[in-house]
């Protein structure tokens, strides 16, 4: 037992030496990562993100977000970090921060913000996470509970003790969520005031997010699916949360710079929904102008455009068909590529695909101990290799859905010139409200096909009711 005591004291000493003064709060925090390690960790994850998430290609907009972010950083507690602010090219309503100052905002969120102060509030909140080293503190807490779990397990000789401590540690780390978000709100509000933005912009952003969340939940219920909302506790604040109000009002209040016109000019022409570079969904079609391709999915199937794949689900989600890129194999024909993927012993009923500038091969694959059937195809086009895989939850339905999946595979074609305009997607555009203008009238001029009135209200912070004022700049989608 003395050896175990010695081990526990060594581990305890390691934990105690991990305390450091938080640069943003002045309190002593438990951390097991130096600042250089923090920056290195953030850089490593940023490199991964650059490979996994598409970066919005508008350099002018990227530079604008960087300028606003740097204005916040200059008045923060850790201005020495080399912050990078990046716009992600997805319609997701989200923003997040990595250790060391790597901050990301999705253009989907930017579409619903209405001023530079709103943008600054989102960025300031994320900067607050960085300056307070929230990710580092959570990482250290996780490591600490892991170490303590080892000690408990060693003393008890029961492996489950480690699992129990791990569960306890997970609860502790998750428990930080509420406090960390409020701390990021307070620090963000402070940075806003220091940078001459009104700290109340933090409340405005939460209002925008809550409206979007309400609409998203309503739409999801109507479509029979789970809603997707902005990350973290930042989205769960009630509009009139007393603690949030106290946090925001605890910093010096300045009327500050709203920058509405600057912001609207910056996002004028920004992609809305799918972007040209990521491919565009139009009805049953997926159009990708940079790759010059078009593919048509079965009627009624829901198409999801992910950063690394396109996925279609049948109405009852009984069947799925996915398409993604695979590495090129020199001197390997499509049929051989398919055989390499699934094994010749598992391949059934293969056939060639030949059309203008397209070569491919499709077959049925039998996999798993129950012999589950899948439709697999490899298509060579424009120097790229496309994999298409279709499957059903239950094998007995495969014969019902396979003809639809095969039809989709054979619909793969060179993008017709008549679809070039559609393949460019929708854009946020500015217009001045006319006298007597209503969102119902604007909806008729919009390219939005579904929930046009509701989406225009959300875009212009008029949800769920109200009409624009004459002469006001409005965002529309065309």
Quickly list its features.
43% helix, Membrane-bound Lytic Murein Transglycosylase D, Chain A, 478 residues, disordered N terminus, Protein Transport Mog1p, Chain A, hydrolase, protease, 3 domains, 7-stranded antiparallel β-sheet, 4-stranded antiparallel β-sheet, alpha+beta
Summarize the biggest pleated sheet. 7 strands, antiparallel
Give the distance, in angstroms, between the N- and C-terminal Cα atoms: 74 Å
E-strand count: 19
Task: Provide the low-confidence segments as ranges.
Answer: 1-5, 7-18, 139-176
* Number of helical elements: 14
Compute the gyration radius: what is it? 26 Å
Main sheet: strand order: 10-11-12-16-15-14-13
Mean pLDDT: 83
Question: What share of the residues does DSSP label as strand, in percent?
Answer: 15-25%
Give the total of domains: 3
Shape: globular
As a percent range, the share of helical residues equals: 40-55%
Judged by helices, strands and strand pairing, the structural class is: alpha+beta
Protein name: M48 family metalloprotease
GO molecular function, one term: metallopeptidase activity
Pfam family, one: Peptidase_M48
Keywords: Hydrolase, Metal-binding, Metalloprotease, Protease, Signal, Zinc
What does this structure look like?
By secondary structure, the chain is of the alpha+beta class. It folds into 3 domains: 2-263, no CATH class; 293-414, Mog1/PsbP, alpha/beta/alpha sandwich (Protein Transport Mog1p, Chain A, 3-Layer(aba) Sandwich); 422-477, Membrane-bound Lytic Murein Transglycosylase D, Chain A, CATH 3.10.350. Helices cover 43% and strands 22% of the residues. The chain is built from 14 helices and 19 strands. It has helices at residues 2-16, 35-52, 59-73, 107-110, 116-131, 134-156, 159-194, 201-223, 242-249, 260-267, 334-342, 398-411, 439-445, 452-459; strands at residues 19-21, 28-30, 84-88, 95-98, 102-106, 271-275, 280-282, 285-288, 293-296, 302-306, 309-313, 319-326, 347-355, 358-367, 372-381, 384-392, 413-414, 425-432, 473-477. The strands form 5 sheets. A 7-stranded antiparallel β-sheet has the order 10-11-12-16-15-14-13. The protein has a 4-stranded antiparallel β-sheet with strand order 7-8-9-17. A 3-stranded mixed β-sheet has the order 3-5-4. Helix 3 (59-73) packs across helix 5, helix 6 runs antiparallel to helix 7 (159-194) and helix 7 (159-194) packs across helix 9 (242-249). The longest helix is centred in the middle third of the chain and has 36 residues, at 159-194. It is globular and about 70 Å long. The relative contact order is 0.09. GO terms for molecular function: metallopeptidase activity. Its cofactor is Zn(2+). Keywords: Hydrolase, Metal-binding, Metalloprotease, Protease, Signal, Zinc. This is M48 family metalloprotease. Its EC number is 3.4.24.-.
């Amino acid at each position: 037992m003395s050896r175990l005591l010695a081990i526990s004291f060594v581990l305890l000493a390691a934990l105690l030496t991990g305390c450091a003064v938080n640069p943003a709060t002045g309190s002593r925090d438990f951390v097991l990562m130096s600042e250089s390690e923090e920056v290195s960790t953030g850089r490593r994850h940023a490199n991964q993100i650059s490979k996994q998430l598409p970066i919005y290609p508008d350099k002018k907009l990227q530079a604008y977000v960087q300028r606003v972010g740097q204005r916040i950083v200059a008045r923060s507690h850790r201005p020495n970090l080399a912050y990078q602010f990046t716009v992600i090219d997805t319609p997701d309503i989200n923003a997040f921060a990595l250790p060391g100052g790597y901050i990301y905002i999705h253009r989907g969120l930017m579409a619903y913000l209405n001023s530079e102060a709103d943008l600054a509030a989102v960025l300031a909140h994320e900067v607050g996470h960085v300056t307070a080293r929230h990710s580092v503190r959570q990482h250290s807490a996780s490591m600490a509970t892991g170490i303590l779990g080892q000690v408990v397990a060693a003393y008890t000789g029961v492996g489950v003790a480690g699992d129990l401590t791990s569960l306890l540690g997970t609860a502790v780390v998750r428990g930080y969520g509420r406090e960390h978000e409020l701390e990021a709100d307070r620090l963000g509000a402070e940075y806003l005031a220091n940078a001459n933005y009104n700290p109340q912009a933090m409340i405005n952003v939460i209002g925008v997010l809550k409206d979007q969340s309400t609409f998203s939940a309503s739409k999801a219920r109507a479509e029979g699916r789970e809603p997707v909302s902005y990350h973290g506790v930042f989205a769960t604040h009630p509009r009139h949360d007393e603690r949030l109000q106290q946090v925001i009002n605890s910093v010096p209040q300045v009327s500050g710079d709203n920058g509405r016109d600057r912001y609207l000019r910056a996002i004028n022409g920004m992609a809305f929904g799918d972007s040209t570079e990521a491919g565009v969904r139009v009805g049953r079609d997926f159009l990708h102008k940079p790759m010059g391709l078009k593919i048509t999915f079965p009627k009624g199937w829901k198409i999801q455009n992910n950063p690394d794949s396109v996925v279609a689900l049948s109405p009852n989600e009984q069947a799925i068909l996915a398409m993604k890129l695979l590495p090129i194999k020199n001197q390997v024909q499509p049929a051989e590529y398919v055989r390499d993927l699934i094994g010749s012993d598992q391949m059934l009923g293969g056939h060639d695909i030949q059309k203008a500038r397209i070569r491919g091969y499709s077959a049925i694959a039998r996999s798993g101990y129950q012999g589950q059937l899948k439709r697999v195809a490899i298509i060579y086009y424009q120097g790229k290799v496309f994999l298409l895989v279709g499957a059903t939850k239950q094998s007995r339905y495969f014969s019902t859905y396979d003809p639809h999946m095969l039809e989709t595979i054979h619909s793969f074609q060179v993008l017709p010139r008549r679809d070039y305009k559609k393949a460019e997607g929708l854009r946020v555009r500015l217009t001045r409200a006319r006298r007597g203008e209503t969102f119902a009238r604007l909806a008729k001029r919009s390219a939005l096909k579904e929930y046009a009135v509701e989406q225009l209200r959300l875009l212009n912070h008029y949800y769920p009711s109200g009409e624009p004022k004459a002469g006001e700049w409005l965002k529309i989608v065309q």
